Amino acid sequence: MGRPKRDIRAAAEESTTPPEQLTDTQSLAKVIKAEGNSLYTCSLPNQRTVLVELATRFRNTIWIKRGGYVLVELTPPKEQKGKVEGEIVNVVRDEKEWRKQSYWPKEFPRSTYDDEEDEDSTVGKMPPSDSDED
């Protein structure tokens, strides 16, 4: 039987509101790759790559896409078991609200679409003519 809807709603609601402040062991991270079995490779603001595990309350409830942001609780090096360096304790769903917080790292800028890349694009244009006949 599936999980009760109240559990799903509670997990979803919990991830919409950002915390007031972060603890010393918490950090925002950008998801680079899903490794499987609720493990994710994430990039911290200092460009360090870590392997983190998704908290059990979010498993099969909230999906994390590559390039998304998560709140990670890092485990002290002495307490680490294997390669997993921490746990995802919150998922950034309303990025606009999270960016307003003072702890949002400057290393994660808002992604904007550059129009300069379109200059070299040939999408929707006719191919060049090769006929040099007189």
Description of the structure:
By secondary structure, the protein is of the alpha+beta class. 13% of the residues lie in helices and 25% in strands. It contains 2 helices and 5 strands; from the N terminus they run αβββββα. A hairpin with a 2-residue loop joins β1 and β2 (39-43). The model is unreliable at 114-118 (pLDDT under 50).
Q: Which features does this protein show?
A:
134 residues; 5-stranded mixed barrel; 5 strands; extended
Secondary-structure blueprint of this entry?
Blueprint: H1 5-16, E1 26-36, E2 39-43, E3 49-54, E4 69-74, E5 86-91, H2 95-99
Parallel strand pairs: 3-5
Antiparallel strand pairs: 1-2, 1-4, 2-3, 4-5
Main beta sheet: 5 strands, mixed, barrel
Main sheet: strand order? 1-2-3-5-4
- Content-based structural category: alpha+beta
Q: What is the terminal separation in angstroms?
A: 77 Å
Summarize the amount of helix as a percent range.
Answer: 10-25%
Q: Given the C-alpha coordinates, what overall shape results?
A: extended
Taken as a percent bin, the fraction of beta residues is: 25-35%
In short:
This protein is of the alpha+beta class and 134 residues long.
